[in-house]
Amino acid sequence: MTRIQREKQDIILEAALEVFSAHGFRGSTIDQIAEVAGMSKPNLLYYFPKKEEIHRRLMSELLVTWLAPLQEMRADGDPFVEIRSYIRRKLEMARDFPRQSRLFANEMLRGAPHIIDMIEVDLKALVDEKAQVLLTWMDEGKIARTDPYHLIFSIWATTQHYADFDVQVRAVLGKGRGGEGRFEDAARYLEQLFLHGLTPKPKG
Amino acid sequence: MTRIQREKQDIILEAALEVFSAHGFRGSTIDQIAEVAGMSKPNLLYYFPKKEEIHRRLMSELLVTWLAPLQEMRADGDPFVEIRSYIRRKLEMARDFPRQSRLFANEMLRGAPHIIDMIEVDLKALVDEKAQVLLTWMDEGKIARTDPYHLIFSIWATTQHYADFDVQVRAVLGKGRGGEGRFEDAARYLEQLFLHGLTPKPKG
DNA sequence: GTCTATATATTGATAGAC
DNA sequence: GTCTATCAATATATAGAC
């Protein structure tokens, strides 16, 4: 495959991400994607003969990106530093790659038909491994004893929320508060939530 | 409108909830809904002449259900009891009404085109009111000082996650752990998260 | 490789018999 | 109120000229 071909494919995939993440697979048309990509529909179909093939490519690339932040959590690091860094990385992904997050959420809502195998095998294996790391930290008394799986779920949920439910977050915060400060506020809030919860500090 | 008519409409709305929540608006066909409802397509269209009208009805009913749990949080109650109850109600909704949760998530992912007005007005007003309640509790030193808006967001995110990302949760927990214990585990975990975070208890 | 024109399939909605 | 038959619009995909 030539360099030109690869570039064209990348333009199409970028346009498809834009459209699929906003309207879902069925809600998106090749016409829309072609327009965003700046080419005609038959031209787009010259590079990707099937609409499904575009989606498939996006999904397989997505999963690699998706597993990366958790993989970086190191067993030999300081527990609080590692967890805080993980939360930060996930929140940065929600801020910088909201379309990927929404594409993933769309797939989940439909029962993950295209990636259920990778979820059940690769993702499960990774989470099992990191849950074991968390359990070790608990055994060592470095973090509170709790359910490591649900801990990971809650980090996913709280961070991805800022991408997937972005409209709602902005509407609720209103014009002033929604204006770009929300990710910094979220970072501060989530750090406190996961590290201390709502228990008030004794006055000092 | 007769009783029969109302019943038929309810059957259609129930079927539409099933289909829309799983495939999204554009991904659902009237044929599918009609089949689930156990009637022919023209017959269904006799009661709802437009596909959009079915969706509109579901959305307006949904929003009422959706605001209820937060409305019940009372300023004159004990803060920890009120917050814990709220989390519990939201988690029960994720468990008992996952389709409504997914319908809502679908709408959010698309930028809430049909309900943005209610989000910006009614939901915002309700959250503003409850954020004020939380702020008062913080001023009184009853709960830790934190961002009340992001606190509410994180309760939404963590509880709805068990409905919206159900496939993933079950796949990661595996056959044994995914088997029905997950909501009880989540309830225990979330209670600890919000009340104490990960700070380990001093040994004693 | 890119275009115009078009084939084919799906689907929302209607017509008209019963 | 419910059905069969069908229309009209949309959307995926292909044919064939350039």
TrEMBL record, chains A, B:
InterPro entries in alphabetical order: Homeodomain-like_sf, HTH-type_TetR-like_transc_reg, HTH_TetR, Tet_transcr_reg_TetR-rel_C_sf, Tscrpt_reg_YcdC_C
Transmembrane regions: none
One GO BP: negative regulation of DNA-templated transcription
Pfam family, one: TetR_C_3
Entry keyword set: DNA-binding
DNA-binding region: 29-48
Highest taxon of source: Bacteria
SUPFAM superfamilies: Homeodomain-like, Tetracyclin repressor-like, C-terminal domain
Keyword DNA-binding belongs to the record: yes
UniProt entry tagged with the keyword Nucleus: no
GO molecular function: DNA-binding transcription factor activity; transcription cis-regulatory region binding
Ranges of residues in domain HTH tetR-type: 6-66
Listed PANTHER family: HTH-TYPE TRANSCRIPTIONAL REGULATOR RUTR
The protein, known as: TetR family transcriptional regulator
